[in-house]
Write a structure and sequence with these properties.
With 474 residues, the protein is α+β, with helices and mostly antiparallel strands. The chain has helices at residues 12-24, 88-91, 93-112, 125-131, 145-160, 187-191, 223-232, 252-262, 332-347, 355-360, 366-370, 391-407, 456-473; strands spanning 2-8, 30-33, 76-79, 117-119, 134-136, 140-143, 165-167, 172-177, 200-204, 207-216, 237-238, 242-251, 267-270, 277-284, 288-294, 297-303, 314-323, 351-354, 381-382, 417-425, 429-430, 443-445. It contains 13 helices and 22 strands. Helix 1 runs parallel beside helix 13 (456-473), helix 3 crosses helix 5 and helix 3 (93-112) crosses helix 13. The two termini are 21 Å apart.
Length: 474
């Protein structure tokens, strides 16, 4: 197989890169290689009845497939440079915001119409947070919901499938940098960047495919694979952070004054004891707590829906502590994985604990969870998070819960549920130039797999940007 452009990964970055190339260069042949299935075939077997926990599917339908890990997320597109990644350091703040708004419009045109765009602009909560040693980050948030996010992705795929070759269930094993001799072209043709001259070959189980341009959009679930690619092709990288914490679930009315106006409030707290940064993340009003599988490790996440019939009486959000490591330790993801594996070992998956039990230094048991005034939306194993999370991280989480209780009274109630662990793995940051291009001409790395973006909006914008760069070269 021979393509003008090969895209590895059909997550947000890969999708928007392919979509933009289809619009700008309709004559180009584009191939997308994805380890998971197409959207309509993605289905997690956990039903809460016959199958209650992760069974280790060959390809996790929550993490892989068309739409990537974002397909069954809450569908929140945060339009901001304040969080979600550092794309702006490569392409500029103005350009980054322009592309995020452009992605937002594409989503609206493909089924997202009627959804609300929330904003922190002019909110009184910013002052209230400051008065209580908290900081509310600025953002505009488009909430599609898990259900409408699925519709948007379905419509995008329907528009693209007849113009782009999608290869599902085809994980790429490696990427090869072709020599001039292998392409049967002379030095001049190779250096002139002719589309007729393939420069990259991707290898998979049943064969290989060549292309002049290669865009890698492996996502967070492809972190280990991305590390191998960078080693093989001698692409410089540097260690990134890892976020470790819990998912909080409480009655929706506790946070309703915030979620009704802002939907998602990104609140940051600096702990008194260690001066660590703790932040809220992925707030899901009237949502549910879910599991996800990353490299065989079961962690926790959250969803919410636009459909009123699918709403619950609970709100959930993550509390995460960011950890950066210096020499000699570099494996931040390995550190997070070891904590998650410990949780899986003790709880057979996800552990749940009442905040009151954690504060008293005792484990939660099935009887205490059954008597809890907050009905859990995820069937998890009652246990003791203090046996899993390092003391420094746990102390920070407890401090943050007590701080949030001042702006949302009821957060620190005994029956507030804490699910653990939640880990956000960030790929090591790949060395990229202002075009998101590696040290090899024509090889680009986008999305969360680059370590540059950490959100749906930033990943999607990075895909559009690289498509613009490539299409303008020819």
């Amino acid at each position: 197989m021979k393509y003008d452009v090969i895209i590895v990964g059909a997550g947000p970055g890969g999708i928007f890169s392919a979509y933009e190339l289809m619009k700008r260069r309709p004559g180009w042949k584009i191939g997308v290689f994805e380890s998971g299935t197409e959207l309509e075939k993605r289905h997690c077997p956990i039903d809460g009845d016959k199958i209650k926990s992760c069974i280790g599917c060959k390809s996790c339908s929550i993490m892989s497939g068309f739409g990537g890990a974002g397909a069954f997320s809450d569908g929140k597109y945060n339009i901001t440079n304040d969080f979600g990644g550092t794309l702006y350091t490569h392409i500029g703040r103005k350009k980054a915001l322009e592309l995020m708004h452009y992605v937002d419009q594409i989503n609206l045109d493909h089924g997202g119409e009627g959804t609300k765009l929330y904003s922190t602009a002019g909110t009184a909560f910013k002052k209230i947070c400051i008065q209580n040693k908290l900081r509310l980050l600025d953002a505009s948030v488009r909430h599609l919901g898990t259900d409408k996010n699925y519709i948007v992705l379905k419509n995008l795929y329907a528009e693209m499938k007849d113009h782009i070759d999608f290869h599902f269930n085809t994980p790429v094993d490696s990427i090869e940098l072709l020599s001039r001799e292998e392409t049967d072209g002379d030095s001049a043709a190779f250096s002139e960047s002719s589309l007729d001259t393939p420069r990259y070959r991707v290898h998979f189980a049943d064969g290989s495919a060549d292309a002049h341009y290669c865009i890698v959009s492996a996502g967070r679930s492809g972190s280990k694979w991305m590390e191998k690619v960078c080693r093989d092709l001698q692409i410089p990288t540097k260690s990134n952070r890892v976020d470790i914490g819990v998912r909080v679930e409480l009655p929706a009315v506790v946070f309703s004054h915030l979620t009704d106006e802002l939907y998602e409030s990104k609140i940051v707290y600096r702990t008194e004891k260690f001066e660590d940064s703790v932040r809220t993340f992925c707030m899901n009003p009237n949502g549910i707590v879910v599991t996800e599988n990353t490299n065989g490790i079961v962690t926790v996440n959250g969803h919410s829906f636009e459909d009123p019939s699918r709403k619950t009486e609970n709100t959930n959000f993550a509390l995460l502590v960011s950890k950066h490591f210096s020499e000699p330790f570099k494996d931040s993801n390995g550190y997070g994985e070891s904590i998650a594996r410990l949780s899986n070992m003790l709880g057979g998956g996800v552990i749940v604990q009442r905040f009151g039990d954690l504060a008293r230094g005792r484990r939660s048991n099935p009887a205490r969870i059954a008597e809890c005034t907050v009905q859990p939306t995820l069937q998890a194993t009652p246990g003791d998070l203090s046996l899993v999370l390092p003391k420094r991280i746990l102390d920070g989480i407890i401090e943050m819960i007590n701080a949030l209780d001042k702006i949302a009274p009821g957060t620190a109630n005994n029956d507030t549920l804490l699910y653990g662990v939640e880990v956000k793995f960030y790929n090591m940051e790949v060395s990229l130039d202002e075009n998101l291009e590696t040290n090899h001409p024509g090889l680009y790395v986008i999305g969360d797999g680059s370590g540059v973006t950490h959100s749906l909006s930033h990943a999607s914008a990075s895909g559009v940007y690289v498509a613009e760069v490539i299409s303008s070269e020819q």
